[in-house]
Amino acid sequence: MNGRTSCFGIALLLADILGSRPAVADDQSEAWSNRGVFAFNDLVFDFQKELEVVGPISSHLENCSDKSFFCAKGGYLRVALPRRCESLQIGKVWTHSGVMTKVLSSHQEGFAGRQGIALLEAPGPYADYLLGDPAFPHTVVEYTIERGIVGIYHDSRVDLVSEAMLGDLRKYEHQPTYRELVTLDKFGACSP
Question: CA–CA separation, 172 vs 178, rounded Å?
Fold first, then answer.
C-alpha cells in the first residue's frame, strides 16, 4: 500500500465515521458529478448524503444510476436519463430502476431573457426539452443536451406534465413553481 492509497483509505474511514460519503463514488460510473450536490434555488439534491432538501424540509434521495443511465428517485425529482447522447423526439421514453422519463415537448430557446449558470456554456440558441412522468404530474424538468437538467418546475396544485405536453411552461418561470440550476456542475448531461 503506498502513501496515496492509505490517505484515500483514511479519508473513506473518516467519512464513514462522520456519517457522510465521499464526493467521488467508488464506481465513478454511478456518480452524477465529482461533488454530487446540485442546487436549484432553494431546492437541493445532495447525492453524498442521499437527501433532497427544500427549505427546512428534507426527504430521502436515491441514486439509482448505473453505467448507462443517470437515475434519481426523490420527492421532487424522479428522473432517468441516458448517459450517452441520442436523438430526442417528443414521446421518447426512458425507463430505468422503476423510473420513467418521457420527452413531453421541445422548443428552440434563446438566452435573451435568461440568467444563471446555463449562460456560461451555451450563449446561442439551443433545443430545450421538457421531461416528466404522467404518474408524477406535478414535476417537470427542463433539459438541454449541452447542460443536462437546467431547471425544475414543481407545483402540487397543477398538472405540469399535461401543461408541458401542450407546449411549454414559460408562463411559470417567474413564479415559485420554477427553480433554476445555480450550481456549476452539469446535472445529467449526456456525453457523445
Answer: 6
